[in-house]
Fold this protein.
Amino acid sequence: MILSDREVRAALERGALRITPDPRTDASLWSSTAVDLRLDEPLNTWVFPAEKAPRYFAPGDPAYDLPTLIGQFLRPVARTDEGFLIQPGHFYLGWTQERIQLPHRSRLAARVEGKSSLARLGLGVHVTAPTIHAGFGATDLDPSFAGNPIQLEIWNTGPLPVLLRPGLAICQLIFEWVDGTPEQGYRGQFAVQGPETLPPSPTTPARPSRKRRPH
Amino acid sequence: MAAILCEQVAPGMRASERCVSVRDVRGHREWLLVEQDFLTVRHNKTYLPIGIVQADQDHDLILVEFPHEAATGGNRIWVRVADLIEGNGVSS
């Protein structure tokens, strides 16, 4: 079930959801079932030089080295006085100014979606990965932590160069109730079996099996 | 809430971000991009906040869920209890 603007405000007030800066101070960010989020800086793009480049990138491979990938192939996009020029056919990585926290106990999840005004120009803000799961940016280790920003995958499928200014309402966040309590909420109430095949470890030998509680 | 030991902490995609790796019980490495201030430092070690899903008490293993999908695609991994700290900073 999608939350209305009133329900989102109520969730903010009772601490079930945290958005920083607080959107309640800016009425222009709201619609009946969504909160707009604004573009932050910087904007990055992948570059792939023909020379010295690997044949492919495989995120699931054991040798996948994200820091090296970032260091070698990610570049900041130059910002003019006007903003960032989003070229046709290009892909960019950006962030929202707003930082989000969705505590597990809140039973809230969200979806980041584009704005129709930008979509009509051919601009997308995510690549088929819109879900912000319950627990996003949540920690009780530091009560002052504001949350994590949402990373945006910005792509221009239209023929027009589009100017994006930092602070532009670039996407919207739609909140939904989570039906039931996620397993994380149970904090391991069920005794379960781990991976079937464990590597040998001198520090954690298997204990004699205990009688398990019924599920 | 708990946190898991980070094997590596590297620069992320912007100044405020870090790219961290954690290893599961089989040694498989997962990479995550998070804000630097999301991470917790205890005794010169860096920890990533995670959610606890389930426990295998026979082997001292915990199934944890990342705060968001790892760059390598994983959401949940089995880790050793010894690699976790609880919210008060005490090792599990």
Q: What stands out?
A: The radius of gyration of chain B is 12 Å.
